Amino acid sequence: MSPQRQHGARPSPEVRAVRERPAAGRRRTSHSLEAVLTEAVALLDTSGEHALTFRALAARLGGGAASIYWYVSSKDELLDRAADHVLADVLVAVEGVGGGDPVDDLRTIALALFDAIVERPWLGAYFMRDTGVQPNGLRLYERLGQQVLRLELGPRESFHAVSAIVGFVVGTAADMGQQAPEAVLSGEVDRDEYLARYAAQWRALDADEFPFIHHVVDEFAGHDDAEQFRAGLDLILAGLSLQAGR
């Protein structure tokens, strides 16, 4: 996956310098970018993206909404920086990775990213969205790429390999992190019962028209999401190993 387009023009250093200089007679509310991002992540975790407003964030920090503009220029930038703030912990978790088998190291980094996005479903939507304000996302992308470099593939194959891994990790984790169906949330049924309902519908389908569904329906009914993810990741990594002639 390549870094996505930058959204919105970034202010020039001169403009930002003016923003950061207090006007005469005006006192700046005492925050820090670290504090702003920490509270933004906490608000995203507890209430979701819709609840993250400058007013709500300022209320948590103490001060007016205008004080947040000292640190970020828009909600888009705030979301991107909040995502990158979380990715700093992923980088710490994989800090010692890189000296073993490159495919095993790719798996370790991918699993760490996967766990972070499953824990915070909002994170997947903002991964590598604006590398100008997401240095940790760029470093994580680079860490994956450095393991692929050790497989001695060409530039195109290397780019496709990291893109496939990141796309699968982010997409699957975001999907798994979605809110459970209302019937499960309300306690009407548990997850197994919910899947059993769908499995019964699948079994009722015509076997001649849907042979694949009949072939896998028992696996679907009892599958584990995390195990399913790891199996898919291993398929991608096995293909990468074959491409590298290992």
Description:
- The protein is an all-alpha fold and 246 residues long.
- Helices cover 62% and strands 0% of the residues.
- Helix 5 (102-119) runs parallel beside helix 7 and helix 5 (102-119) packs antiparallel against helix 11 (225-243).
- It is flat, with a radius of gyration of 22 Å.
- The two termini are 24 Å apart.
- The relative contact order is 0.10.
Tell me briefly what this model is.
With 246 residues, this protein is an all-alpha fold.
Structural topology:
Blueprint: H1 13-20, H2 33-47, H3 54-61, H4 75-93, H5 102-119, H6 135-149, H7 155-176, H8 182-185, H9 191-203, H10 211-221, H11 225-243
Helix pairs in contact: 2-3, 2-4, 4-5, 4-6, 5-6, 5-7, 5-11, 6-7, 7-11, 9-10
β-strand number: 0
Largest sheet: none
Overall shape: it is flat
Low-confidence stretches: 1-29
Radius of gyration: 22 Å
Structural class: mainly alpha
Oligomer: single chain
Question: What proportion strand?
Answer: under 5%
N-to-C SSE series? HHHHHHHHHHH
Q: What percent of residues adopt helix (DSSP H or I)?
A: 55-70%
Question: What are its keywords?
Answer:
single chain; about 250 residues; mainly alpha; 11 helices; about 60% helix; about 0% strand; flat
